[in-house]
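To: structure subgroup
Subject: Chain for Friday's discussion

All,

I'm putting the inputs and outputs inline so they're searchable in the archive.
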Amino acid sequence: MIEKEEQKQDIGKLILIVVCIFSLLFASNLILRTTPTNGQAISTQSESEQSSDEAKAQQKPKAEMVPVTDQDIKVRKFPYPYQSMLAISSDIDSTSLAEFEDYHRFLNTKEKTPYGQGLGLDIADSAWMYIADNYGDKLDHEGHSLVNSMSYFQGVNPKVPKDADKIIHYYKAGWIDSLHTFGDFSRNDKKLLFSRELADLAWKEMRTSGFMPEVWINHGTETNVQNFGAYNPKGFSFYQAGDDPKSPYYHTDLTLGNGIKFVWNSVGMSQFSYDDPLFPIKLRDGKQVWGFYRYAYDMAAGKRIWTWEVHELPRQFNKAHLDELAQNEKYSVVAQHLGKGYEALAFNTNDVQALQLLKKYQDDRKILVARTERLLNYDRVNHYIRFSVLQSEGKFYINLTKIEDPVLGESTPILEDVRGLTFYVNDPGQYTLLINSVPIPDQEIQRNGADKSGKQSIGIKWFEPDYTDYTRMN
């Protein structure tokens, strides 16, 4: 019994010794974890706890942006470095697909062409959906009739595509940007072949194909009842019925609803340049749309001399006109019919020289040549962009917030809307451009030295030039 008691006491002592040793080891480890070699205390948090705190710290808002009111920032009228803008607005009348491709290779690419080196200008055309013309006029030097004109459908049959694939291709390439109404409904028998049904079927097809131009150009005279925008019961436009809800030819609910923003309403002008080519049109159905002025004729001895025929290009693009445009810092939309000729080549020597002169004014950074839709949309946004100026940590931010369009309504801008917009600032290096508080990528920004006004600027880059020969890509 005594031996057993002694054994129990020995075991108890052993357990006590082991507990003491573990206690010492634990205390020593705790000291090593909480005290660095320099003797300063550090955190006892686990690695996961430390990571959580670091994440919270990173989520803390950056220095607050404060509105600034003492910065005198103005929007430059045109994309830097240009002094003016010009578009050639071409009606597709009497143009075959082959003619279209021929002259656009010269206008838009830098390829070798029958007219010489391509100009590489941003010039777009218009297109038709239907052809109902029965005048029997000649289309081209090969003697084809007008029914062979470039059109989306064959005749007035929306079930039979004709040049649909080509029109879609060239629209996506930027060589087409306008709808020359739904088609050529000019007729010598005075029959009215246009209908709302044809308009509806056209828009359904366009939505499906992605051919969705924003520019509408009226065409022809009284059998083209699809026209709208200048109705006058006592004037030349008495026949316009496209915006009359009581008419069987009414379609502007469809047309504006599918994205048409800009309308040429059949009223040509003798004035070459404008401070602003846009004006509001109130339609008979109560809707509004932007109208735009097109230079189409000169006046001489009280008579109109129409300049929108292809061999009148030298009359349109002469030094006097181009100097007037650049020096007065204005816009010009020039009406043309680039494919309306019967010769084997669209342009003669004088035409080519006139177009080369226009190119020189762009090369000299005096006139920016742009397709019609781009010019009109730039003008619209330039007038109605709204922005605020913010400051944070010594840097300034121009925040583009909305386009406050009084005709089309308010909208939120995207990058493509604001290309070319330029702001005069004291030091471009101190500014960043935002769209609704999101920085515009730096590769899309250009910071400019002083122009002839003596002011520096910062802006969003204009569209990159595209010299691709799209005739080889379809």
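Points worth raising on Friday:
Residues 125 and 176 are 4 Å apart (CA to CA).
The first strand starts at residue 66 and ends at 67.

D.
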